[in-house]
Amino acid sequence: GTLPSTASVVQGLGIAASNGAHVELFGTVSIGNRHAALAAAHLGTQLVARGVVTADTVADSSSSFIGTGLNVILGAQALLTGARLSRGQLAGLFCSGAGTRVGLSDCVIDATQAQKAGDYEIGFGVFAVEGCQIELQAVRLSGHVAAAIDAVGVGTRVRAIGTTADATLAEPTAGRGGYGILVSAGAQATIVGSRLWGNHTVGAAVNGSGSELSLVGTTIADTQPEPASQTVGAGAMALAGAAGLHLAACRLVHNHAVGIGFDHAGGSVRHCAIVDTLAAQYARLDRKGRDTGTKVQLADAVLVTDAPPVVIARSFARIFYRNAINIG
User: Fold this and answer.
1) Nearest-CA neighbor of 232 among 277, 266, 265, 190?
2) CA R_g for the chain
3) Which of 19, 132, 236, 322 is the most buried (most CB within 10 A)?
4) What is the rounded average pLDDT for all residues in the chain?
């Protein structure tokens, strides 16, 4: 049931914990709410849930509220096990604020519906901002819009172990994005033993000063070109002055234009296999990651362009259209 509005509760919350409360849920179903099916707010608040299901959280079109499955903010903590967060709006999981921590294990977040946000429509699986910390273990993120995981801002940390992100769709208004994971504006993320497949534009991307993304023992496969421009479809990319993209013991298969790319950003590739990269157009970018309008046909295992030092060690590339390593 949706809670009514009070002085401290926003209208449309299914189940809410706040002001230092400790709430435990077992086998709970929260469906058809607005703003959030589950919510936790304020330092000292703890929400623990096992076997819960949320679905069809739909934001009120007349308000600025989002429609998440789980909303954790202002230093609260949440731990979910065996949960499914389905068909929310804007984000399946939204996490915000320094000191805010969320842990998910053996969960599914799927089919987040796009919601208007500025000039775009987005429906992230996980949306982490403003210094929060998230850990995902054995989580599947499927069928989202713009990005399965979007980590933004200095201090924001995401760690995913044994996680799958697949079938992310491009943003419908401009036909852009569709990332498996996007790390930007100083956020940091580590992906271990995971699988990113069938996404769009870039399977794993890190963008902007201070941002860093590390992938270990992870497979990135079948990334499709961006629908609007029919460009890229890269496995992994570091862009626009990112602090670094680091891959170790990863496998990149059947991506488009670029297996791994460093465009105005550095990083490392160690003990990786980059195979069967397919031909596609690649848009040349400037130092801020903006399209310069120049496009080239590529199918390179590794692309390094206008980048600081990049280390490539003990890695293997097979069946590339033009270059195993393209330094420009």
Assistant:
1) 277
2) 20
3) 236
4) 89
pLDDT at 289: 64
- Going from the C-alpha of 54 to that of each of 28, 49, 148, 240, the distances in angstroms are 8, 11, 18, 37
For the stretch 39-53, pLDDT in tens is: 999 999 999 999 999
Nearest-angstrom CA–CA distance, 228 and 200: 11
Nearest alpha carbon to residue 221 among 264, 278, 177, 263: 278
Which of the 8 DSSP states describes residue 62? Answer: T
Q: With a cut of 50, say whether residue 248 has pLDDT above it.
A: yes
Per-residue pLDDT at 72 exceeds 80: yes
> Which two tokens mark 56?
């069809």
Residue 234 makes CB contacts below 8 A (sequence gap 6+) with 201, 202, 203, 205, 223, 255, 256, 257, 258, 259, 260, 261
Output the CA–CA distances (angstroms, integers) from residue 275 to 57, 121, 233, in the order listed: 41, 33, 14
Please, are residues 57 and 89 in contact by the beta-carbon 8 Å criterion? yes
Residue 26, judged by CB atoms within 10 A of its CB (0-12, 13-18, 19+), counts as: exposed
Distance CA 183, CA 153 (A): 9
End-to-end CA distance of the chain: 58
Whole-angstrom distance, CA of residue 78 vs CA of residue 86: 18
Contacts of 286 (CB under 8 A, 6+ apart): 264, 292
Using an 8 Å Cβ cutoff, are 119 and 93 in contact?
no
In degrees rounded to 5, what are phi and psi of residue 88?
-80, -175
Q: What is the DSSP string of 147-184?
A: EEEEEESTT-EEEEES-EEE-PBPBTTTTB--EEEEEE
d(CA 285, CA 1): 49
pLDDT beyond 90 at 287: no
pLDDT surpasses 70 at 317: no
Best CA proximity match to 188, nearest among 265, 134, 266, 122: 134
Specify the pTM.
0.92
- Residue 1, pLDDT > 90, answer no
